Amino acid sequence: MDAIRIRGTRRLHGRIQVSGAKNAALPILCATLLSDGESLLRNVPGLRDIDTTAALLRFLGREVSVGIPEVRVHAGRRNVPAEAPYDLVRQMRASVLVLGPLVARFGRAKVSLPGGCQIGARPVDQHLMGLEALGAKISVEHGYILAEAARLKGAEIVFDIPTVTGTENLMMAAALAKGRSTLVNCAREPEVEELGRVLNKMGARVEGAGTSIIHIHGVDELAPFDHAIIADRIEAGTFLAAVGATGGDVLLEGCPLDDLEPVIVKLRKAGLDIEREGDAVRVSRERTLRGVDVTTAPHPGFPTDMQAQFMALMACAKGRSVLTETIFENRFMHVPELLRMGANIETHSNTALVAGVEVLSGASVMATDLRASASLVIAGLVADGETIVRRVYHLDRGYQAIEKKLAAVGADIQRINIADEEG
Length: 423
Ligand code: EPU
Prior knowledge:
By secondary structure, this protein is of the alpha/beta class. The protein has helices spanning 22-31, 48-59, 86-89, 99-106, 125-133, 164-175, 190-201, 233-246, 261-269, 307-315, 334-340, 370-382, 393-398, 402-407; strands at residues 2-7, 12-17, 38-42, 63-67, 70-74, 83-84, 108-112, 137-141, 144-148, 156-158, 180-184, 205-207, 213-217, 226-228, 248-253, 273-277, 280-285, 294-295, 320-324, 344-348, 351-355, 364-366, 386-390, 412-417. Helix content is 31%, strand content 26%.
């Protein structure tokens, strides 16, 4: 099994190219189900989640060719079951994003219920409530969601909470519904806005994506598209945090500075220097790292997807910080692993009290989910001695060749193969 070996305490210097955004690419791949013909996605990151989505689209009869950074999806065969099986959905919850497109386009969808995951229960009730409001008949049987509608009809939908993939599923469904839909209390993440751009390229009439109210005039059919995916703000934020932890000076090429504003404000407060340089962002740290409090919130708040990486940074800062997680109920799985590396962290329900320590010490640690893995990599980069991060398949879901990108800026980091016993 692959693991990442890091020998820490090296400052990072050089350039890193930010890849395309995973959480933008996944819904856009699913949007290809809304049309016939061939769509071309550019700037797609090379990730396990992209391969899983490609497998799902193939299962649904599409011809998919993955040649990173491009992916082509062709309508391919029809008369295949509009079904997302458990085996694919359990590998990646975002598979639920085929639900809206399938029922809107083919009148029927059968999608495995995702179930919980490491970071929380993550129900999909808001997706189902919205589809029902658009006129779909929904039932849950034998672990599968069944959704049926001869033709969806536009409706007003108010989300109880802003949900990213829920908003995206409903945008795709409403794009082919008859009449006008209004979605209220929508997620405002840049990836939602990006999906709106793609749907409009396909001929949809979506207004307000990226704000809390989205208006959609349904159309009868949509066309294939050619689109370059926006840069990954969370990947970029992870590298910013890494340089913050180790010190050094790195130019992040293609870094989406505006999308990262809530993170950058906190990183600057912690002592990092972050400046725009044309299309790139220069990050350096000469000053002492200081403890800064953070509370996660839906965009434009501090993203939950950066909480674990920020905690690794705070673990080696001077002073204390309080990190509060408000989005997912179980997103502190990295804490016990950081403790094994000498961090001083106490958790009370959804709050972590971090007292920075002078040195973290390298250890063998276990990745539990995607962002937790990134947090352990950052801790390993700054720790004294050798760190082995196990179960890097989590990391491979969301970071393209992270060890190569970090090695290129001077980190002593390699992918190795080791035996790993579960349990
Ligand atoms: N929620 C419900 N009911 C629903 C939907 C969501 O109660 O029907 C709750 C969730 O349990 C959570 C909150 O609403 O407490 C927000 O969840 P959301 O639906 O926004 O999350 P998601 O769409 O499942 C996406 C990203 C996640 C990211 C979250 C929050 C994708 C493919 N995934 O998930 O990304 O953490 O939004 O920003 O876009 C990651 O990349 O590591 C990752 C987990």
